[in-house]
């Protein structure tokens, strides 16, 4: 069946085809904008679980708004076809460029790597792992901007039910060792694949190659890649080291996250750029009349400079005609030699000879010449700048950023700063507070993932009788984890016997997964609130004789706020006892007006 129209999109032509489906260019009829429409393969779309992966892809892409990630516009279903419209990138893929045997300069690869790291940081912060970073999924626009595409096999952190944990998804040439083994996938897998892509752009080939898929996977797990400098000698050793660290076999030996990779490459760029500028000074010092000459070796002043010189061609002839005649001929030779015109082919050699004669007439140079001192100073300055840029920020600077974010409810944005503070300044007295912030960030991200999973479950099982109740409990967890935990426990207790039913089982399993986390959050909150209530009760008891009215206000407030909290029953009873002492023989109903 030939597709001509999908929703508001008029199909133009096919531009790509793969295992997930077919990609077309299309025109949006109301705006005239050209877009790319991806249509899932019909056979795959009808397989069990495939539509769920499609739904996950849509959910993931909707959260990822970044200039280096292909933007999603819309999605839909028509005549049995699942499709979505996304940004059309006018260009080609990096795979096409590599197939044409294009060799990228290291500066260009570094810029692309930084852009991809920024895009991956956003995806990883939203709990999305790409899982299949490779040249074919990196689009190269005509204005030479990189775009990360095809999150079709991405899976949310902690999400289950879409692909088996032992299933292998990805491309073997760029697959992380733990991914090849079918182990748990983390964001470190994307960093390994990124290293493989950077390696290919420089070397013109992946880190490992084999015609046998099994052998290739074995090489990913056990073999060490060759230095990229073997294939691209101009690559700086610093860049080679970054790539090899990305390709480490053990995930914890790679970089902690994509942001640190970007910062490392940026620091390398600055340091090498400064070194290049400083290196130009001594080069200019060794140039005469626009021609390059060989440097003078102060350690070996008798060494020949440049090519061998024919001494007779430049020395005056022997004095064989007497003192006067020889002197005249010598003077004539000298006069002629002053006007000697040397052809371009021999000019460098003559100039080198002149330089040697001048050097022999001058006093001996010191062991270290001025250009050498200048070069050493430039290198020292380069090393200093490189050391400075690679140093972590100060503890005060990091803490100020973290505190500012905490005060503005933007803690997730300083996740990397929190990690750096705890890594570099564990002995700082503020590390305990930063550790609490780290726990808060993890809790915020876990809540976000739980809400996203609840949305996906509700979308998949729209007719479930307990879906809305489960979703309400998860949303309530941000404000009242104790109540949310009680609601989930009630759901489990009531519907656990019906777990085998299709519309019940997924929510019961999800509730059982979320319950321990919510109980932990509730316990933490109870611990904090208990300490606060205890302090207020002590204050009320201390004020009982001198300011009974203030005691009454504190105790009535505790009774009103916590009367329905089982864990606070002891505090409520103690507050009522103090109220009884304030009011004397009056009836409890009369003095605890707020509790009614």
* Oligomeric state of shown chains: single chain
How large a portion of the residues is in β-strands, by DSSP E? 5-15%
Distance between the termini: 70 Å
Record the strand order, biggest sheet.
1-2-3-4-6-5
Low-confidence stretches: 154-169, 284-354, 585-596
The number of helical segments is 21
Alpha-beta classification: alpha+beta
Largest sheet: 6 strands, antiparallel
Helix content range of the residues, please? 40-55%
Mean pLDDT: 78
Give me the CATH fold name of the domain at 91-254: Transferase(Phosphotransferase), domain 1
CATH architecture of the domain at 91-254: Orthogonal Bundle
CATH homolog superfamily of the domain at 91-254 = Transferase(Phosphotransferase) domain 1
CATH C-level of the domain at 91-254 = Mainly Alpha
How do the strands and helices of this protein lay out in sequence?
Elements: E1 5-6, E2 9-17, E3 21-28, E4 34-40, H1 42-45, H2 50-63, E5 72-78, E6 81-87, E7 91-93, H3 94-99, H4 106-125, E8 128-129, E9 138-141, E10 146-148, E11 155-156, H5 177-180, H6 187-203, H7 213-222, H8 237-246, H9 258-285, E12 287-288, E13 291-292, H10 322-338, H11 344-361, H12 370-390, H13 395-407, H14 415-424, H15 431-460, H16 467-476, H17 481-495, H18 505-542, H19 548-562, H20 569-583, H21 588-591
Antiparallel strand pairs: 1-2, 2-3, 3-4, 4-6, 5-6, 7-9, 8-11, 9-10, 12-13
Helix pairs in contact: 4-6, 4-9, 6-8, 9-12, 13-14, 14-15, 15-16, 15-18, 16-17, 17-18, 18-19, 18-20, 19-20
Concise summary:
The protein is α+β, with helices and mostly antiparallel strands and 596 residues long.
């Amino acid at each position: 069946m030939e597709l001509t129209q999908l929703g508001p999109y008029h199909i133009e032509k096919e531009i790509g085809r793969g295992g997930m489906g077919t990609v077309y260019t299309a025109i949006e009829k109301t705006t005239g904008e050209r877009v790319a429409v991806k249509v899932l393969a019909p056979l795959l779309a009808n397989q069990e679980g495939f539509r769920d992966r499609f739904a996950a892809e849509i959910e993931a892409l909707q959260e990822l708004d970044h200039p280096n990630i292909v933007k999603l516009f819309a999605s839909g279903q028509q005549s049995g076809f699942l499709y979505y419209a996304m940004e059309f990138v006018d260009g080609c893929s990096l795979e096409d460029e590599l197939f044409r045997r294009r060799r990228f300069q290291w500066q260009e690869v570094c810029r692309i790597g930084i852009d991809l790291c920024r895009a991956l940081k956003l995806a990883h912060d939203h709990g999305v792992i790409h899982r299949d970073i490779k040249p074919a999924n990196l689009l190269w626009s005509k204005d030479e901007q990189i775009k990360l595409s095809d999150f079709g096999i991405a899976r949310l952190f902690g999400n289950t039910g879409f692909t088996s944990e032992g299933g292998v998804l990805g491309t073997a040439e760029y697959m992380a060792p733990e991914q090849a083994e079918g182990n748990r996938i983390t964001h470190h897998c994307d960093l390994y694949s990124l290293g493989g892509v950077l390696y290919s752009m420089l070397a013109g080939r992946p880190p490992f190659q084999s015609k046998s898929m099994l052998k290739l996977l074995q090489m990913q797990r056990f073999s060490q890649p060759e230095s990229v400098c073997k294939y691209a000698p101009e690559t700086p050793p610093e860049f080679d080291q970054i790539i090899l660290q990305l390709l480490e076999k053990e995930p914890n030996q790679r970089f902690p996250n994509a942001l640190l990779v970007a910062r490392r490459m940026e620091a390398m760029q600055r340091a090498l750029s400064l070194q290049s500028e400083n290196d130009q000074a001594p080069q200019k010092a060794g140039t005469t009349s626009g021609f390059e000459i060989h440097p003078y070796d102060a350690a070996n002043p008798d060494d020949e400079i440049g090519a061998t010189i024919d001494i007779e061609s430049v020395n005056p002839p022997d004095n064989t005609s007497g003192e006067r005649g020889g002197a005249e001929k010598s003077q004539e030779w000298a006069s002629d030699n002053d006007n000697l015109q040397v052809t371009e082919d021999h000019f460098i050699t003559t100039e080198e000879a002149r330089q040697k004669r001048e050097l022999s007439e001058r006093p001996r140079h010191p062991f270290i010449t001025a250009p050498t001192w200048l070069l050493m100073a430039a290198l020292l300055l380069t090393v200093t700048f490189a050391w400075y840029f690679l140093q972590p920020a100060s503890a005060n600077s990091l803490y100020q950023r973290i505190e500012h974010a905490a005060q503005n409810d933007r803690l997730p944005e300083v996740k990397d700063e929190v990690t750096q503070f705890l890594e570099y300044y564990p002995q700082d007295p503020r590390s305990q507070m930063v550790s609490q912030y780290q726990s808060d960030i993890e809790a915020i991200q876990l809540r976000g993932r739980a809400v996203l999973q609840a949305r996906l479950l509700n979308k998949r099982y729209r007719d479930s009788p307990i879906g809305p109740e489960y979703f309400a409990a998860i949303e309530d967890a941000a404000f009242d984890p104790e109540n949310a935990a009680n609601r989930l426990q009630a759901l489990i207790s009531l519907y656990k016997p019906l777990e085998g039913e299709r519309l019940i089982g997924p929510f019961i399993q999800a509730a059982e997964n979320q319950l321990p986390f919510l109980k932990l959050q509730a316990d933490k909150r109870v611990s904090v609130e208990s300490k606060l209530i205890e302090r207020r009760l002590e204050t009320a008891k201390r004020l009982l004789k001198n300011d009974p009215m203030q005691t009454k206000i504190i105790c009535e407030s505790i009774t009103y706020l916590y009367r329905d909290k089982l864990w606070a029953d002891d505090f409520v009873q103690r507050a009522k006892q103090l109220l009884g002492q304030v009011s004397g023989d009056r009836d409890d109903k009369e003095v605890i007006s707020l509790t009614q």
